[in-house]
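Feature request, filed as a ticket because there's no other form

It would be nice if the structure record came with a short human-readable summary line next to the tokens. Right now we just get the raw output. Example of a typical job, pasted below so the devs can see what we mean:
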Amino acid sequence: MASTASLFLVLSSLSLQAMALQERRQLVVRQRLQAREDRLQAAAQAVAGSLQRRHRCLIALPESAWQWQSEQPGGCAQTGEVEALLRGTLLASQPAPQSASYTLLQYCPQEPEPPAAPAAAPAPVLEAHLLLEIEEDGATYRSASRLLWSWGPGPTPRLRGFQHLGLRSAAGALPPCPLASSEANP
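Raw output as currently delivered:
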């Protein structure tokens, strides 16, 4: 009877230890997923910040028209700057000790709605969707974000809202951009 009781205690102990190891493994997976999501969100914020600070003329254009814009005399972005927006690098940070490269797959501004009344017209708002991709650990991860731009009394657009829409499967994408075909080569 004593050997049965001790065998029961050993098996119970092993079972608890296995459960603890499984929980630890799941925690590590969740932390890696959160770190990837954080890096993709940081990349989206970096793209939005660069658009607001240095490339305001690109805010209302889909990314397919950015290269054309950079080739125009007096354009607000040079070819190398557009390439840096489309393919950038995030610096290493904790818990990711290595830097990560991202690719901007889609930037899609939506047509702004016309103001209701000219006298009390609010600042025009432009909504844009952003799809980014990183490759890490031999896998591809995509993330979508929603940006809200507004124009105040001056000509300078401001980022009014940023919403991270989460990770997407590598096959998943945003719907086709309606402005891409009409404004790629104005």
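Something like this underneath would help us a lot:
The radius of gyration is 24 Å.
The chain is about 40% helix and 25% strand.
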